[in-house]
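A reminder from the course coordinator: this example appears on the midterm review sheet, so study it carefully.

Given structure:
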């Protein structure tokens, strides 16, 4: 990920919060195989277990996920770590998380520079976090370790999504969360045999909020007004982020 200083988010704690708010990540691997593509990507919702936000800590946390056993991506990972039978991929993996809201930025938003010089071009505002690490694959459906991992994973992921995404907290008039135990045990056991577990140790993490911070205050205000004038949730959200990130940039400049 290209991290211009003006766009980079340097707080690992903030990057962890970003992942929790945007848990659907794209897992990408590069695995030599005669049977499957070298590069493969899959969208997976992740549970984040954090250890440390110290940049010097070698392993900063774990990302836990699962995917269908019949997915060719799963088969390539199983093939790679089954011989030798370590359960660990030799190659690093990458996971990319992208914020829900992003949008094209028209040069017409730049109310300061465009009228005076015309030296502006279109761009795209977005926020993203990229993680690199080592993966352990839980694929042996007969192993108690795999069963235990998958049981915890599906319980934790369901609880996270039911409460954080759906608001099913059982409080203040909200309905209660769906529980894995609401389904028959036999059914869950069958489902577990059709998935594999993926555990990624976070060894490197970086992220950016590309929100027009590089522009002057007049152009940033034009971007804020342009997004607000879209009259959409996306526009409103991005207008707020452009304002927030611009103020952070100005504050950093004042403190130097």
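Designed residues:
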């Amino acid at each position: 990920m290209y991290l211009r200083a003006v766009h980079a988010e340097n707080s690992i704690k903030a990057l962890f919060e970003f992942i929790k708010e945007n848990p659907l990540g794209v897992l990408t691997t590069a695995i030599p195989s005669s049977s499957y593509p070298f590069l493969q990507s899959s969208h997976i919702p992740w549970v984040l277990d954090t250890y440390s936000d110290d940049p010097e800590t070698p392993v900063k946390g774990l990302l836990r996920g699962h995917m269908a056993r019949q997915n060719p991506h799963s088969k390539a990972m199983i093939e790679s770590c089954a011989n030798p039978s370590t359960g660990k991929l030799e190659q690093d993996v990458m996971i990319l998380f992208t914020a829900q809201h992003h949008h094209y930025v028209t040069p017409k938003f730049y109310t300061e520079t465009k009228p005076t010089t015309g030296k502006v071009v279109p761009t795209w505002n977005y926020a993203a976090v990229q993680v690199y690490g080592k993966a352990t694959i839980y694929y042996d459906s007969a192993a108690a370790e795999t069963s235990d991992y998958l049981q915890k994973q599906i319980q934790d992921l369901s609880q996270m999504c039911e409460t954080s995404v759906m608001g099913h907290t059982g409080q203040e008039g909200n309905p209660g969360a769906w529980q894995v135990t609401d389904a028959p045990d036999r059914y869950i056991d069958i489902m577990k045999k059709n998935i594999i577990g993926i555990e990624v140790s976070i060894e490197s993490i970086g992220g950016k909020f590309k929100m027009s911070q590089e522009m002057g205050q007049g152009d940033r205000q034009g971007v804020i007004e342009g997004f607000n004038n879209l009259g959409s949730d996306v526009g409103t959200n991005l207008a707020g982020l452009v304002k927030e990130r611009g103020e952070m940039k100005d504050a950093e400049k004042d403190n130097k």
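The first strand starts at residue 24 and ends at 30. The helical segments are 12-21, 72-82, 113-116, 144-165, 185-193, 217-228, 233-255.
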